[in-house]
Amino acid sequence: MSVMAITGASGQLGRLVIESLLTRHPAANIVAVVRDPAKVADLQARGVQVRVADYNQADALEAAFQGVHKLLLISSSEVGQRVPQHRNVITAAQRAGVGLVAYTSILHADRSPMGLATEHRETEALLRASGLPHVLLRNGWYTENYTASVPAALQYGAVLGCAGDGQISSAARADYAVAAATVLSRADQAGRVYELAGDEAYTLSELAVEIARQSGQPVVYRDLPEAAYEAALVQAGLPGFLAAMLAESDVGAAKGGLFDDSHELSRLIGRPTTPLAELVKAALPV
Question: Where would I find the beta strands (DSSP E) of the chain?
Fold first, then answer.
């Protein structure tokens, strides 16, 4: 049976992928690649192999990938550093003889208006140039990116953003995790490109309506200029680089960068994607 490794395995997506894989494969065939093994001690106790490396350690990555047949490269969280870090992973996979690399890219990376797409396009190009068999998981937005702000929306009576009437086809992080585990579990995936997004699309105005409906409190959407939204995020305590990224992403959403109606994700996971209403409910204060 194939040995499957997941980079960034202690992160939110990585953990969910491993949980999905554990329902299909022996734990001994799953490798969690992490910077801090203490964060996955619970997975190790269940039989998952834990190997230590981060995206900046080319030699450690090569050692971690020994004996690995399939590798899930979860894109680095360090925006601006992704390309050299991903290059390290790809080179290590080549040297270790990995048979397939699956990469979590961004929705419609080849034509996306999102600034975040640049590093994903460059990583996809690195994979093509490497000659490694690979499959692209072009993930749309996590619904949790928006529902995380539900408590603030209730506190201030508003959802803030600069996405205009842009349609957002988001899905739950767990939906994308099941998709990744499914692809790793299937044969003949090299060369495939999956455009993955939620079944339902909504605007931020519709998100505000849903929060108001479930909470019984008045909540509206306030569409701001990009700079004003970025400043509001900084004032709320977000680091400057993250605030800028989120504001720029909303602008991309206004241009259609987060919309897709192919339903490829739900077909891949064999069920409908998690509804917005369910994730809003989960985000409401108890």
Answer: 4-7, 30-34, 49-52, 70-73, 100-106, 134-139, 158-161, 193-196, 220-223
pLDDT reported for residue 238: 85
- In the block, tokens 């086809």 appear at 169
Structural domains present in the chain: 4-139 (3.40.50.720), 146-152+157-166+199-260+271-283 (3.90.25.10)
Question: pLDDT digit string (tens) for 234-285?
Answer: 998 888 988 898 899 999 999 999 999 999 999 999 999 999 999 999 999 8
Question: pTM for this structure?
Answer: 0.96
Q: Are 132 and 94 in contact (CB under 8 A)?
A: yes
CA 32-89-123 angle, to 5 degrees, is 120
Question: Residue 286 has what pLDDT?
Answer: 81
Strands 100-106, 134-139: parallel, antiparallel or unpaired by DSSP? parallel
**86/58 Cα distance (integer angstroms):** 10
Cβ distance 116 to 253 under 8 Å? no
Note the pLDDT tens digit of each residue in 162-212. 999 999 999 999 999 999 999 999 999 999 999 999 999 999 999 999 999
Q: Rounded to the nearest 10 degrees, how much is the dihedral formed by the CA atoms of 233, 236, 242, 245?
A: -10
209 alpha carbon, distance to own chain's centre? 26
